[in-house]
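Below is a filled-in request sheet from our internal design queue. Each sheet records the structural input a requester submitted and the sequence that came back. We keep these sheets so that new team members can see what a complete request looks like end to end.

REQUESTER: design group, bay 2
PRIORITY: normal
MODE: inverse folding
CHAIN LENGTH: 1004
BACKBONE (tokenized):
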């Protein structure tokens, strides 16, 4: 290099003015390198800086300036090549420059900063603590020379913050990280909008708060980091030299959020952002290997979620290309080795090619060698090598491999002590290895150790909730398979973590997607109940079903908890709960349509994603506030159990007016639990074949309803009804008789899982002496309830639901007749003929806004229109109103209906569910009506025959209004009135089974 420099300079005669331009040319080339990343520009700039320095011998007034520029360029060369000689030269040059900047010199603070940066870089390479200590001292000196008002004060804040954060990474002292964040915030305050350094300050603060998230698991920090990174990206438009860095940093942050929430939109956005970054880093750019590595990792994660082999192959190619750009000595070589190893191991698991697994192990070993004791990523390399060696054991059966894997997992766990955010993950890994060892040796101690690790991992509050939930599910699975005495506790912990995970998930749409997952969540409550029953804890089984089913409804219902009793004790505390709850509910529901729109948009648009980020951040903040308020309420005498999972002693109140039959279905066993208000629950274990064949009844029913020939449709439905009677209902009826429950009284059905789509109320036929077919509906008045709590709430009195001048209900009829609903007008006439206090919204009167406004002012409502199911998004199930208007399930949830009492949903599928949906969530229009305040609801399980509308309406309301003097509240007469009306319908000539089975009653 020196020879080239000399040749260049020798071509310029002494005194040539071009010699004085060396510095200018070097600056230009260095700047071009920073933008384009071309190494030849950097190399030539260094040659020119050396030439300029030669022309500025000791004593020259600009020598310190040349020393500084050459030092910075040589340090940059080190960052690209990893050659320590270059870093040492940079430090020596900066020290020389500092000597030329004595006290009082205007550039002394600059030299402090530059020398600090160089020695800090050496610390990062060698781990020499004295280098980091010196860097911090130098940066403090620089800050002292930049008092308030100095234009470089914000830069000093940023630099000192970076060094203090590095010290935190070495010592783990949270005080250092907190100090770094404060310093970064101080710097940002000095860089208001329009300041040239604002994007850098935003980026640095984002990195610091993201680091705090990684240590504490506080999702609020991650959300703030994402928002800050987006703000920085906006200030780095196309052409900005740091735009690719912002793409990269934002991508990594949303990727991290994916790891916490499992939200696929985040990993998709990360891939788009990493591709954008890579485009800005062409061949020769110093950051190209980093972008290749990051894009490869994101694509690999998508493979793990979707199984798309093209993603895995792209990932491997990108990782190999990145590794080629990181030769021995490169500071990031260990990361490339590690990541390529993971990718080829993933391919082994798909293809079974032994060479892939062997390569993965070799690569992991090389990565570990480059991460000696003290390296911040050593535990990750140890963990990955352990997993790979354990995989080889699974292929070969060599116990040495399993023993080595266990040793490695223990080493990784030691590097992740209590409080480390990845401890739960390591505990899960070693638990799996110990379980495998138990399977090989039969040593009970291995099994006990494995279960202890899983329990600790599920309970480790410093790890993220999703990881803890996954560990808890693993604990459940292993404990149950071994009939371990911790199984019941494992189920309780898993259910609580699932609840907590949903609480911090912003919208009901996102919550529903989680409950559709394949990680055991959809059946967790039913499986937990089945185990509790198995060990004789039937009351606990009821509690677990209540805790783990209809989670979305339960969460929203908790936000609407009445506060009148608490207000008498502490009105301020009650107000705080109500205000926070209202904000949370508004965010959880009203932002749903917004989030759906955003998901559909191009995920690369920063504006749309910024709204999603703000939603996450606000939800977590409000959830934290609510948790604090709830804790305070529970500390108040008399409110110790506020919003806790209800005990059976409370849940049994649901059966005060008649037994509730919970039909619990699980792959392990199926049971009918009869809940009574004055005694323990009674269990009826169903036949073992029902565990596996029960869901087939749902498929049989669906197949029957799709048949176009009425006789075949009826035959299919009758087969299902008969199976229900023989397998479940007949045994329940027999037990009800033994318990003294008289016929012609009310009973409630609460089916779980897929069984909630079955018509238990019409089970039969029951063989009788006169050879006439009878069904359960002839002997009992059946209703349904999604949960016991929903039924308890439906019976609670609502103060002031009637206007003082009217003692009767106000009935609103919403009707949309069309060419497919020709009988709707007759249905409306049949209702209107009964009373003069009926208000009708027909055709163009029935717009979304008008309907919502009028529902609020009426006690009863009757819908006679089309009902539409949305197979992909249940919150978009809807009543079809005038024109293109829809009243969706989400609209209903949002509504505040103080007068709601009774609803008749004479519309197709108003109580129907998507069979492939979240099994335990009971997401249909009728359930939404009950949630928002209607105490009794009538709905349809499938499409309703248009011809039946007028007959049913006439008969039903005749019975409802005929008993106005009855002490029984009007809405409570609806179940009996429906039963009697349907019995009348059955007697009509030509009425198929499909038509009379369809309508069901839900609620009180």
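RETURNED SEQUENCE:
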């Amino acid at each position: 290099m020196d020879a080239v420099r000399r040749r260049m300079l020798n071509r310029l005669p002494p005194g040539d003015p071009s010699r004085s331009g060396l510095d200018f040319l070097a600056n230009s080339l260095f700047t071009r390198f920073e933008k384009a990343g071309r190494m030849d520009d950097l190399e030539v700039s260094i040659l020119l800086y050396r030439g300029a320095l030669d022309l500025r011998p000791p004593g020259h007034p600009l020598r310190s300036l040349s020393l500084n520029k050459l030092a910075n360029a040589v340090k940059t060369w080190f960052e690209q090549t990893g050659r320590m000689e270059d870093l040492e030269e940079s430090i020596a040059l900066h020290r020389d420059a500092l000597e030329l900047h004595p006290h009082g010199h205007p550039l002394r603070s600059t030299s402090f900063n530059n020398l600090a940066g160089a020695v800090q870089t050496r610390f990062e390479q060698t781990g020499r603590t004295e280098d980091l200590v010196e860097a911090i001292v130098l940066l403090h000196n620089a800050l002292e020379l930049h008092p308030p008002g100095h234009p470089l004060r914000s830069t000093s804040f940023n630099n000192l913050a970076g060094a203090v954060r590095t010290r935190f990474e070495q010592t783990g002292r949270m005080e250092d990280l907190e100090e770094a964040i404060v310093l970064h915030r101080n710097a940002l305050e000095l860089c208001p909008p329009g300041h040239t350094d604002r994007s850098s300050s935003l980026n640095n603060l984002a990195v610091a708060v993201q680091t705090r998230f990684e240590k504490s698991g506080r999702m609020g920090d991650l959300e703030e980091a994402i928002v800050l990174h987006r703000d920085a990206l906006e200030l780095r438009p196309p052409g900005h030299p740091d735009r690719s860095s912002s793409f990269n940093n934002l991508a990594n942050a949303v990727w991290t959020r994916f790891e916490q929430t499992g939200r696929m939109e985040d990993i998709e956005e990360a891939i788009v952002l990493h591709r954008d970054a890579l485009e800005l880093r062409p061949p020769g750019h110093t950051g190209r290997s980093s972008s290749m590595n990051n894009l490869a990792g994101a694509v690999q994660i998508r493979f793990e979620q979707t199984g798309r082999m093209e993603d895995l192959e792209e990932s491997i190619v990108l990782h190999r290309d990145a590794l080629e750009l990181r030769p021995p000595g490169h500071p990031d070589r260990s990361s490339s080795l590690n990541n390529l190893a993971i990718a080829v191991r993933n391919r082994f698991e798909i293809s079974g090619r032994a060479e892939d697994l062997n390569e993965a192990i070799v690569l992991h070993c090389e990565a570990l060698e480059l991460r000696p004791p003290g390296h911040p990523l050593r535990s990750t390399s140890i963990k990955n090598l352990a997993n790979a060696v354990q995989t080889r054991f699974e292929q070969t059966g060599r116990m040495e491999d399993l023993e080595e894997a266990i040793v490695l997992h223990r080493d990784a766990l030691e590097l992740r002590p209590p409080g480390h955010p990845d401890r739960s993950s390591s505990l899960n890994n070693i638990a799996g290895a110990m379980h495998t060892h138990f399977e090989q040796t039969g040593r009970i101690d291995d099994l006990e150790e494995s279960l202890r690790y899983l329990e600790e991992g599920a309970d480790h509050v410093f790890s993220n909730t999703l990881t803890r939930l996954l560990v808890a599910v693993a604990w459940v699975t292993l404990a149950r398979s071994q009939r371990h005495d911790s199984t019941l506790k494992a189920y309780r912990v898993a259910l609580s973590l699932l609840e907590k995970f949903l609480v911090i998930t912003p919208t009901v749409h996102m919550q529903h997607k989680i409950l559709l997952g394949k990680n055991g969540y959809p059946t967790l409550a039913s499986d937990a109940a089945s185990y509790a029953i198995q060990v004789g804890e039937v009351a606990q089984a009821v509690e677990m079903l209540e805790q783990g089913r209809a989670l979305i409804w339960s969460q929203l219902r908790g936000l609407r908890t009445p506060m009148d009793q608490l207000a008498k004790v502490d009105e301020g505390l009650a107000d705080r709960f109500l205000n926070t709850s209202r904000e949370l509910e508004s965010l959880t529901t009203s932002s749903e349509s917004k989030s759906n729109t955003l998901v559909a948009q191009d995920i690369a648009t920063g504006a749309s994603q910024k709204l999603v980020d703000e939603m996450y951040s606000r939800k977590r903040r409000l959830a934290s506030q609510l948790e604090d308020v709830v804790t305070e309420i529970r500390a108040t005498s008399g409110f110790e159990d506020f919003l806790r999972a209800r005990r059976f002693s409370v849940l049994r109140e649901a059966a005060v007016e008649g037994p509730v039959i919970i039909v619990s279905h699980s792959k392990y066993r199926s049971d009918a639990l009869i809940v009574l208000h004055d005694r323990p629950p009674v269990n009826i274990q169903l036949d073992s074949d029902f565990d596996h064949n029960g869901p087939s009844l749902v498929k049989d029913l669906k197949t029957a309803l799709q048949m176009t020939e009425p006789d075949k449709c009826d035959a299919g439905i009758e087969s299902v009804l008969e199976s229900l009677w023989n397998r479940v209902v007949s045994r329940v009826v027999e037990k009800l008789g033994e318990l003294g429950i008289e016929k012609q009284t009310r009973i409630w059905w609460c089916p779980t899982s897929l069984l909630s789509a079955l018509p238990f109320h019409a089970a039969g036929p029951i063989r009788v002496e006169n050879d006439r077919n009878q069904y359960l509906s002839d002997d009992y008045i059946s209703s349904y309830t999604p949960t016991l709590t929903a039924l308890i709430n439906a019976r609670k009195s609502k103060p002031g639901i009637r206007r003082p001048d009217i003692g009767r209900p106000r009935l609103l009829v919403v009707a949309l007749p069309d060419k497919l609903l020709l009988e709707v007008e007759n249905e409306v006439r049949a209702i209107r003929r009964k009373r003069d206090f009926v208000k009708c919204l027909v055709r163009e009167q029935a717009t979304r806004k008008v309907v919502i406004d009028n529902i609020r002012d009426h006690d009863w409502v009757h819908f006679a229109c089309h009902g539409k199911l949305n197979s992909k998004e249940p919150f978009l199930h809807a009543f079809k109103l005038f024109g293109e208007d829809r009243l969706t399930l989400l609209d209903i949830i949002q509504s505040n209906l103080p007068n709601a009492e009774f609803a008749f949903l004479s519309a197709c599928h108003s109580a129907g569910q998507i069979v492939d949906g979240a099994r335990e969530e009971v997401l249909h229009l009728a359930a939404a009506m009950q949630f928002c305040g209607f105490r009794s609801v009538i709905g349809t399980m499938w499409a309703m025959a248009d011809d039946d509308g007028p007959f049913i309406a006439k008969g039903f309301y005749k019975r409802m209004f005929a008993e106005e003097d009855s002490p029984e509240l009007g809405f409570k007469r609806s179940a009996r009135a429906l039963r009697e009306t349907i019995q009348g319908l059955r007697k009509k000539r030509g009425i198929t089974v499909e038509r009379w089975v369809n309508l069901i009653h839900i609620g009180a």
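SHEET NOTES:
- The mean pLDDT is 86.
- The CA atoms of residues 878 and 888 lie 4 Å apart.
FILED BY: M.R.
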